[in-house]
Amino acid sequence: MKILVIEDEKDLRETLVESLLKELYVVETAGDFKSALEKISIYDYDCILLDIMLPDGNGLNLLARLKELGKSGNVIIISAKDSLEDKVSGLALGADDYLTKPFHIAELNARIKAVIRRNNLNGKNSIEIGNLILDIDERTLLIAGETLYLNRKEFDILSFFLLNKNRLITKTSLAEYVWGDQIDQADNFDFIYYQIKNLRKKLQESRADVSIESIYGVGYKLVEK
Amino acid sequence: MKLLNRSLIYLSVAFLFIIGIWAVIFYFNLKDEIRDSIDDGLDNNRLLILQKIGSDPHLLQQNRFGGNNFEIHPLSRQKALGFRDVYKDTLMYRLNEGDLEPVRILHTAFSHNDEYYRLKIISSLVEEDDLIEDSFWSVVWLFIILMFSVVVINNVVLRKVWNPFYEVLDRLKTYRLDKDDYPLDIATKTKEFRELQKASNALIMHARESYNSQKQFTENASHELQTPLAVITNKLELLLESDHLKEADAQSIAAILRTVGQLTKFNKSLLLLAKIENKQFDAPEQISINGLLRHILADFREFAEFRNIRISIKEAGNLSVDMDSVLAGLLISNLLKNAIVHNSDPGKINLGITDEELIICNSGNKNRLAPEKIFERFHKDTDKNQGTGLGLAICRSICDFYGIPLTYRFVENEHCFTVNFKKIISKV
């Protein structure tokens, strides 16, 4: 899988690259509009992370250029602007997702995988790890062929973990992914813990091949047994 | 005190002085003039009497005024030569008035056939007290008539003249920098008022520029903070994944990460407030408050259960409003979040929807909150929660944007927030 990161802020670009390398992607970068245009014209990427505010041009023009070239690109816009118009025009120009800065790494991972999976559909949209099969569209979970019932939030938590296998998920990023802005306060981390405990119990009882580990009390990590 | 009345006071005081002084001077002038003319008359009488005496010496026997207005007494030569004519005011009994009345008297001396005589001639004088009284009342009437005219002129003419001023004043009183974007334009030919209007417009323009740039600044500053916050967050998250981390270091990093998280939240809320105030959400659509409330409630359900909060909902009506969907969602979720976060354990939340109101009541702190403070930015009642202190400020900002009232009441140990949507109810 090859990913292009178009971001003018050097520190952020390097951080993104470091994280993406952990997911075993092949990563290339562009720091400005010109080099980005060059790269998208020559190469094909499985996913492009695009900052639309570049010093020498509007990232939205890159989207238009991609469309002209007939390349899908699987573009995720990352922008400091959280404006509806930008979102709408970005998505209208063929972007697949829109992520507002600042974001959590786990969130970005989940979005990249979702975009790649959605556009490389080989029949079904599901995640398979060990004896687990999580069907994203049907919202069902099979463990060793048996259906395990999960409520809405448990399903969201588990899919977030499966999309971030072996990666640290902080409590904050989990809360934001599953509950949005609603549960955002540090003293509500007990609530997250309580939710994870329930999910762990269900996974254990069904003899799933994965487990959710606690990391320094800061976050969690899903590992395959 | 109104301008009209103030000028009236100054004018009346000035009139009182001017007319008063004028009246005194006029009175004395008049009196002098009268005496002068009486004295001339007396002198003339003297000549006439002397002439008459030449033809009728009997008159020399007239030693009492009687019916005539003169009397004559013999005088020694010595005294007569030293005599000077004297005009004097004196009192004399008058039959018709039955009282002593002022008269003008001329003492003089003359000689007739080498005999010397003293002659007194009188003439009745204007009664001074009558003169004073008459002129006093004339002056009072003059004053009253003047003041009356001034009041009438003030009210009719000045009011008309000052009208543009009051118009400018009215417009300035109701001027809202965030709502009105037109300059004052009041038709007047008066130079001062045109200048006042020009100065007001310059001031408004300046104020609006500062207001806009301040609004813009908040938004720009918040935007510029997003990328650095992203760098910090992501670098720390990567650092936490490092294999060589000690437990204590990880805890420190996690603490920093939480703080950055708060900062991010805070920045987002500020940005949101700036955007609401900059009217960047303005795509009204028909929204069912009943449906939206139930939808948002579903997101909170587990969290409320975890906090032992029982939520009940009473839908007495169907409430459908014309509102931007993002703002409607923000309003309700912030109010609900507020009700959960500031609740007691165990606690309850009572939700009510009527045909025009959404009411959210929660148990919690047993004391009434200060309604004028809770909607302020950065207001926190306790330091136990780590919220941004902007939640209710955002709610109020949204309600202000639509001009709908958001009120707080403390009833039967419950904190109740009520939004009255009457103004933006969908007309279908």
Task: Describe the overall structure.
The complex is a heterodimer of chains A (225) and B (428). By secondary structure, chain A is of the alpha/beta class. Chain A has 2 domains: 2-119, Response regulator (Rossmann fold, 3-Layer(aba) Sandwich), CATH 3.40.50; 126-224, Arc Repressor Mutant, subunit A (Orthogonal Bundle). Chain A has helices at 10-22, 33-42, 59-69, 84-92, 105-119, 152-163, 171-179, 189-205; strands at 2-6, 26-30, 47-51, 53-54, 57-58, 75-79, 97-100, 126-129, 132-135, 140-143, 146-147, 168-170, 210-215, 219-224. In chain A, strand 10 (140-143) and strand 11 (146-147) form a beta hairpin. The longest helix of chain A has 17 residues, at 189-205. With 428 residues, chain B is of the alpha+beta class. Chain B has 3 domains: 3-131, 2-Layer Sandwich (Beta-Lactamase); 192-277, Signal transduction histidine kinase, dimerisation/phosphotransfer (DHp) domain (Helix Hairpins), CATH 1.10.287; 284-424, Heat Shock Protein 90. In chain B, strands 6-8-9-11-10 form a 5-stranded mixed sheet. In chain B, strands 1-4-3-2 form a 4-stranded antiparallel sheet. In chain B, a hairpin with a 4-residue loop joins strand 2 (86-94) and strand 3 (99-112). Classes of the chains: A alpha/beta (225), B alpha+beta (428). Chains A and B meet through helix 1, helix 7 and helix 8 of A and helix 4, helix 5, helix 6 and helix 7 of B.
